[in-house]
């Protein structure tokens, strides 16, 4: 009888642990593995990160934030950088970003890597020229490695409801550990 009580207690404790872990890792923080080169050199292929999923409202999402999105076209979660917000007009011309007519220096991009990538892939532009006007419910995202990224240029725009997290920390490999903002 005591053995059965011990087994029942252990089983209940395990159920509680599993439920708490499920809530934490689906509603508070989301573990994600970086898949591919689209955010290189900011993030690396196979990095593992924990991303904040708590209290995400429209006002929490700022231009140039790194976010995790649910991408139905690829049937997976993707990590990208917010470039355009609802109502913006985005223009890339000669590797220069203009939003609503104002030039933005993309200081978060690694200039040395850009030059190396242009040579490696024999291209003149890191970001091909384009223009897009966003509707009132659309956001536009790009990968930091524009030559190797499936992003809003090919996948289309996203909605706030597609965002599942932002900000976090790379937890593995330890050599890449850093905050993601």
Automatic annotation (TrEMBL):
Reaction catalysis annotation: Cleavage of hydrophobic, N-terminal signal or leader sequences from secreted and periplasmic proteins
Keyword Metal-binding tagged: no
Biological process according to GO: signal peptide processing
Membrane-crossing residue ranges in chain numbering: 12-30
Residues annotated as domain Peptidase S26: 9-171
Record-linked Pfam families: Peptidase_S26 (PF10502)
Keyword flag Glycosyltransferase: no
Keywords from the UniProt entry: Hydrolase, Membrane, Protease, Transmembrane, Transmembrane helix
Enzyme Commission number(s) from the entry: 3.4.21.89
Membrane topology term: Single-pass type II membrane protein
Coiled-coil intervals, chain numbering: none
GO molecular function: serine-type endopeptidase activity; signal peptidase activity
Subcellular compartments: Cell membrane; Membrane
PROSITE patterns for this protein: SPASE_I_1 (PS00501), SPASE_I_2 (PS00760), SPASE_I_3 (PS00761)
Residues at the catalytic site: 38, 80
A GO CC term attached to the entry: plasma membrane
UniProt similarity note: Belongs to the peptidase S26 family.
Protein name: Signal peptidase I
Gene: sipS
